[in-house]
Amino acid sequence: MSDRLVVIGGDAAGMSAASQARRLKDASELAIVVFERSRFTSYSACGIPYWVGGDVTERDALIARTPAEHRSRDIDLRLRTEVTEIDVAGSRVRARDLESGTESWTGYDKLVIATGARPIRPPLPGIDAAGVHGVQTLDDGQALIDTLDHTEGKRAVVVGAGYIGVEMAEALIQRGYDVTMVHRGPQPMSTMDPDMGALVRDAMCGMGIKVFGNAEVTELRTDEQGRVSAVVTDSAEYPADVVVLGIGVRPDTELARAAGLPLGEYGGLLTDLAMRVRGHENIWAGGDCVEVLDLVSGRERHIALGTHANKHGQIIGANVGGGYATFPGVVGTAVSKVCDLEVARTGLREKDARASGLQFVAVTIESTSRAGYYPDAATMTVKMIAERHTGRLLGVQIVGREGAGKRVDIAAVALTAHLTVDQMTALDLGYAPPFSPVWDPVLVAARKAVTAVRERR
Amino acid sequence: MSDRLVVIGGDAAGMSAASQARRLKDASELAIVVFERSRFTSYSACGIPYWVGGDVTERDALIARTPAEHRSRDIDLRLRTEVTEIDVAGSRVRARDLESGTESWTGYDKLVIATGARPIRPPLPGIDAAGVHGVQTLDDGQALIDTLDHTEGKRAVVVGAGYIGVEMAEALIQRGYDVTMVHRGPQPMSTMDPDMGALVRDAMCGMGIKVFGNAEVTELRTDEQGRVSAVVTDSAEYPADVVVLGIGVRPDTELARAAGLPLGEYGGLLTDLAMRVRGHENIWAGGDCVEVLDLVSGRERHIALGTHANKHGQIIGANVGGGYATFPGVVGTAVSKVCDLEVARTGLREKDARASGLQFVAVTIESTSRAGYYPDAATMTVKMIAERHTGRLLGVQIVGREGAGKRVDIAAVALTAHLTVDQMTALDLGYAPPFSPVWDPVLVAARKAVTAVRERR
């Protein structure tokens, strides 16, 4: 008799796990059942801002693999079906068919939890009004597009200034909106240090986006038809024809919590390196619903990012399918853009380093993406953080134009390999005038960091 | 009494060394004399193709620091002065003033040799004819521009298909020339494996550049006025109004050889890690005239590249100035472009790996520079070479459009840190749809390499 694998969640992590397991074991050895709440599988939520903005014209372009494709590989995929309970002792899950409302139990030999993350939606007056949109799922994206297509006014307010917030600001600008952004922190992009966030704010203001920080939203005001008409904060009121929420996400782990599975300080599932839920031989978890080890600080973090979800899925699938693979952890790399401004970070911010008890130096340099004399050489600011005494690289943040964003990969690899800033000054990076100054900006930052480390012996 | 530092060569390595030494020791402690054959200092030879092509409009834009700037820092800079002999036993150099022809001896306490490289110019009939140009120095660049400005015909032949050759092909295309490239190897870009070079050839052909490989130039035919009229190879004859030579360079070490200093198998000076010439306490050398340690193969190589020259100069200057710095070696990173095609490599080619006695697997994948659904997602081919058994990364070659070239830096850092391809699959690289597919192309290649390594246990 074959084993049965049950997967909860049919997006990146869940479907990657199912597909990889199927590659290793055919249907006679392993039955695979996937429960997915929505009508879609394997889609790129990260692509939604570009669909809204018009760079991507078709919703289906965001779908990497359709339900039909998965089913053709002997995966029993149940769409519009929500798992409502995990019975760990009984090795079974209860699922509700969202169309018919019927519920039934399905037993498993192996279980994969890939329930993703849920957008934060504070219980504010007006939060559910027409014209207020999140952008977490394809249905969210479609709803926002429908609103934009049918709204007369052109005033958009984006609440939140993280990756989704800034990407949505760009999308709305591209659709001809007058965009206001309100956010809690002192600067946008709180994943960066405030000095680097200030560069993002200045650039966004230069693009005509009005950015208001240190603002706590208290209400979403509505008109007589119940449509949103303004965003009210503790200090001002911003008229709005449409509001986009990009406040962040939390691991969607209510099921796991109810089942008594181990959760971390951010509410994400805790796993071992093989992505197996701690203490549970036959349950794995991956994607936006888990916490991951930060290799720089040595602590668990929650990072909702498609690239990690895909890796987790592959690893889980390999292990479930009888192979062997592990996920060593992350260094916290992220890259984004607002119009032509590229913003990237990896490793620890000053704040993170402090919270980890690390003493450090931080330096910032300005350089250019290409040789200074080459056309379109654009300014780039690189901030580098290194540990005191040892000089070990702790983090890098980059803000600039074309060529800035992916430069962070140099630091991501250096962090993974525990290089010191001294070692980084000698890195043999690609040089030619169209690609870099003779000293790559990352090397310039490393040289300044070396000096700072020496001065703070 | 102060020490005297003599520097032979006033381009990247020499002037960086002089400047760095001056930062550490003022004129009362260290006199600095620099002899430079040309009229220029600290210029970017790598920028010449972009000046010829018109992307850079002014010659002086290629000059990072002028003679006057150097002199203002108490550096005794003697332009148009050629060193003709190094007397190691007597700690002095003989120099000839190229204007007056007078020669004189200058004693040194410390000597830096930064004589650079000389272009290879085979003794072919017609090699010195009008219309035949090298592009090593600013004067060469000016001479070529003068020829292009005053030549009626629009047929250019580039001899050689290395970095300079392909960059000059682009420059000539930009100036409206009909460009033919003839070269010795089976494919252009012999710094890549032939399968990757073939992609470059195909792309160049698509740009209208006629590329002929396996061709040995036997003669440069001239007309009655003594101007070049055709390039003759062992198999064909190509009409030419102008010919650009990009055959490669050799370390310019005649002086060093005559002085009995140690040279390596490529004719470059051999130094220790502090860039001190082996066996000579008070002589340093850096830039295009030295051989450097290849950290992947463990052997010496000759690589003429401005970025290394600048690093060498800094390190020599620190050591000469009483500080301490070392150059650990290179991994062989290089990046270039022909029109919108980006070409990059780092580490070992298959041929190099074989020559080093390494057993390896090689894999090639195709992916895109951005998420597949994002506008302008361009195809990118990544070849990865990994050691058998250990899975250690040995080399990466990339050919693609925007975003391809600098991706090689990921591999450059991984090589420096001796990562295995297994470790590389878990790298936390920057992901967002405008910057990368959810699996970065380098990760896709690493995953395929892991499979190949396992299959060849």
Give a description of the structure:
The structure is a homodimer of 457-residue chains. With 457 residues, the first copy, chain A, is of the alpha/beta class. Chain A has three domains: 3-118 and 250-320, 3-Layer(bba) Sandwich (FAD/NAD(P)-binding domain); 121-247, FAD/NAD(P)-binding domain; 334-455, FAD/NAD(P)-binding domain. Helices cover 26% and strands 27% of the residues of chain A. Chain A has twelve helices and 25 strands. A five-stranded parallel beta sheet of chain A has the order 3-2-1-7-18. A five-stranded parallel beta sheet of chain A has the order 9-16-10-11-12. A five-stranded antiparallel beta sheet of chain A has the order 21-22-25-24-23, with helices on both faces. The mean pLDDT of chain A is 96. Chains A and B meet through helix 8, strand 21, strand 22 and helix 10 of A and helix 8, strand 21, strand 22 and helix 10 of B.
